[in-house]
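SAMPLE LOG
Freezer: B-3
Tube label: C17
Construct: single chain, 186 aa
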Amino acid sequence: MEHFGSFVTLAAIPYLVGFLALCFWWRWWLLVPAGLVAAVLAKVEFASVNASDGAGAAFGIILVVFAIIGAASGFVASGIVVIGRTTRLQALRAVYVLPVVFILGFGGFFAVTWTQQKIREARYAAPSAACLDNLHPARIADVDIALPVAPGILLFGDGMSDHHYILWSNPDARAFCNEADGGSAP
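STRUCTURE (predicted):
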């Protein structure tokens, strides 16, 4: 948990800087050019840090990515405040919008990353043990035989969390077992 706190602190500072850079542009004729300049700078800086190598490259990528996410969140917050001022909606005042967008923008990255990880785990999950253990009917050269599902290779890092590094590498067996579990496989 200590490492997670360090990462959040490392990510929060560039996020805050990016957010503050664009969250107070409350005139559309100032917000649009500021957003375009920020987008161009973000593209250039991300390309630059992504092309670098060495020990600090990962650190630089984290800083730039969270600064970009913060700037995008600040831009969205400013846009919502501009809309609120134009429509005179009290719920879209800066005092309400800025904290909500700040929290949702920062938490949104982690929510999207967590969702992508769960989707990846589901996609690469090993087939059910029942499907792997059972023999399945097959017909080869007009002879009925029963065959097991082809084995897969289970890859994971030694000493690493099994929940994040598992990759079962036989997608054909996974597809077959999905159909067999549903009763549609021969």
